[in-house]
Amino acid sequence: MCSDRSAEAHDLSAVPLPPDTVGLLEGLTTTRAIRRYRDEPVPDEALRAILFAATRAPSGSNRQPFRFLVLTDGPNAQAAKKIIGAGARRIWGGKRTADQYEQGSGAVADSPKARMARTMQEFVDAFERVPVLILPCLVRYRDPMPSEGASVYPACQNLLVATRALGYGGVFTGFNFAVDAELRELLGVPDNVFIAGTITLGRPVGRQGPVRRRPMPELVYGERWDEPAPWAIDPPGTAFTSAGPPRSATRHEE
Ligand SMILES: Cc1cc2nc3c(=O)[nH]c(=O)nc-3n(C[C@H](O)[C@H](O)[C@H](O)COP(=O)(O)O)c2cc1C
C-alpha cells in the first residue's frame, strides 16, 4: 500500500515545474501503456506537473470542460479503487475469453499474447494498489454528441505524455464504464458530468519495450482515401504490429 500523503500540502506556488527527462518528440513517440507500478506514491510535485500539463490541453472554444478527480490514498480513493477493480476484473475476464487470449499463441508462455494476458491479469488483480487513480470527466453544457470527447481526451493524452516526461507511467482504460453509477454516488459526480475514462499512474516496474504500431503508409493517406502519402515513411528502427487485439489461431478479430 502507498504511504500516507502529508495532510498539509507542501507549498508549490513558488516551485517551478520539474525538468523533462526526455524531449517532446521522443516522449510522444515512446509513451506506452504502463500497467505495472512500484508500490510507492507519486509525490505531489509530480502530480502537480502532470495535472498542470493535462489542464493546458485544447478544448472547443477554450471552454475547458475537463475536470480530473485525482484519487491517491484517502478513503474515497480506496473505495473507488475497490469499485473499479471489481469492474476491471469482470471486464478483463470477459475479454480474455471473448478475444481467446488462451488460444493459439496465447498458449505459448512467452508469446506477446500470453505476456499481454499475464500483464492484464496482474493489473486487474492488483488494481486496489495502483498509486494514483484519475477519473477524467467532461462537464456537459449541451446534449451528448459524437465529437464531445475531443474536449477531454486530448487532455488525457497530455496527462499521459507528461507522466512519461517525469519518468512515471500510466494507462487509459474504460473500466469506469462498468461501474459508473457506483462511482457517481461515491464521489458526488453530478448528472451533467460524463466520467470519460480511468487513468492509473505510478512508477513503472521493469523496462518498457518499443511502441509498436502499423506501418505509417497504412495509416497516413495523401490526396485520396487509402493512397499512402509519399513522405509517410517510418524512421529507422521503428517497431511494428498489426491492429489489436492479438489474433487468435481460429478467428480474425476486429
Ligand atoms: C480509448 C481507449 C480505451 C482503452 N481501454 C483500455 C482498457 O479498458 N484496459 C486497458 O488495460 N487498457 C486500455 N487502453 C490502453 C490500450 O490498450 C493501449 O493504449 C494500447 O494497447 C497501446 O498500448 P502500447 O502503447 O503499450 O502499445 C485503452 C486505450 C484507449 C485509447
From TrEMBL:
This is Nitroreductase family protein. Gene3D superfamilies: NADH Oxidase. Pfam families: Nitroreductase. Residues 30-203 form the Nitroreductase domain. Residues 227-254 are annotated as: Disordered. GO terms for molecular function: oxidoreductase activity. SUPFAM superfamilies: FMN-dependent nitroreductase-like. InterPro entries: Nitroreductase, Nitroreductase-like, Nitroreductase/BluB. The keyword Magnesium does not apply. Keywords: Flavoprotein, FMN, Oxidoreductase. The keyword Transport does not apply.
